[in-house]
Fold:
Amino acid sequence: MKENNVMLNTDKCVFKVTSLNFLGHELSSNGIRPAADKIKSLRDFRPPQTSEEVRSFLGLVNYVGKFLPDLATKTFFLRELTKNDKKFEWTKECDQAFINIKELLTNVETLGYYNPLDRTRVIADASPVGRFGRSVNSI
Structure:
């Protein structure tokens, strides 16, 4: 680092650790996972009572979204509650979506670090109810 004129503040450095929490993620030799406090916040979230609370919940969910498969489909009913032209009505479908998302968090996969020598698999959330908000009948 000295050869390349990189200066470090040793008070802010951490050496010889097996894992590190950084920006809401746990980085370890096993890969990347959401930090335990983010998972706990989501698991402890009570059922929303307003569209603003749904937005808050979905914001937290989106933060760990890369760890949750088929997220757009699984959040469809909750995202519907955030639309300005919709009356807030917590339905059976909303409650089930809320419960299912929280259950997904119990077995979050660890993502690996990119290695150009490994086979790479690109996964995209190509949900029929994603960005363009198609009707639930197309799910």
Summary: The chain has a mean pLDDT of 87. Helices lie at 36-44, 51-63, 71-74, 76-80, 92-104. The CA atoms of residues 72 and 130 lie 5 Å apart. Residues 51-63 form the longest helix (13 residues).
